[in-house]
Design a protein that fits this description.
It is a single chain. This protein has 201 residues and is an all-alpha fold. 77% of the residues lie in helices and 0% in strands. The longest helix has 34 residues. The protein is elongated. The N terminus is likely disordered.
Length: 201
């Protein structure tokens, strides 16, 4: 009996082996190009970067700065999640809320994040405040949009079935909207934390 390609076990079936081959090939190209380049400010050698990486792992100053950055990203992401998810649930479930809030959400999310830097410094001063604000700002709209889409993608038959069984609005939200929107909320959170890393300044 023949085995289909999508059921073949092992790393080849999910592409991990190909990723490893590409990574090794890129490192080899880097090694050769770096050793043939005379100006190492343009392209440092592969071995020097590897040595610097392992030295950084033992540097208390770098580890401390990494911990500070991690704290800022997680704090900003927490704000984005706690603000964006409820607003997205409200806008996804209520057409009236969606129509009322959409103009403000769409207007604010079109502004480049760097344009908020001066205002963030004025509002929060120097330190963690502006960075946390910018991380939260970039992530909150991703959370809102993904949550709205998740709620609106729930099959309407689930609403009808819940209401036909006598469920109240709160019970519909608790038993239909929240469980059905979890995948979209988690996807929005994953994208938001990625955008948060890009907003660290």
């Amino acid at each position: 009996m023949a085995v289909s390609r999508d059921k073949i076990p092992g790393p080849v079936s999910d592409g991990r082996a190909y990723s490893l081959i590409i990574l090794l090939g890129a490192c080899l190209i880097w090694y050769v190009a770096g050793n043939r380049t005379t100006n190492h400010m343009v392209l440092p050698t592969f071995q020097s970067v590897v040595c610097a990486f392992f030295e950084a792992l033992t540097s208390k100053e770098i580890l401390l700065n990494l911990a500070i950055t991690m704290r800022r990203v997680l704090l900003g992401f927490s704000y984005a999640f706690c603000i964006g998810a409820p607003i997205g649930l409200l806008m996804g479930y209520s057409n009236a809320a969606n129509k009322a809030l959409s103009p403000f959400i769409n207007s604010a999310r079109q502004v480049p994040v760097m344009a908020w830097v001066p205002l963030a410094i004025i509002w929060f001063g120097l330190g963690d405040g502006p960075t946390v604000f910018l991380i939260a700002f970039t992530g909150v709209f991703t959370m809102i949009i993904n949550t709205i889409n998740a709620v609106q993608d729930i099959d309407r038959n689930y609403y009808h079935a819940a209401r036909s069984l006598g469920a109240t609005r709160w019970q519909v939200i608790r038993d239909v909207v929240l469980p059905g929107s979890f995948p979209g909320i988690f996807t929005g959170g994953r994208l938001a934390i990625g955008l948060g890393w890009m907003s660290v300044i």
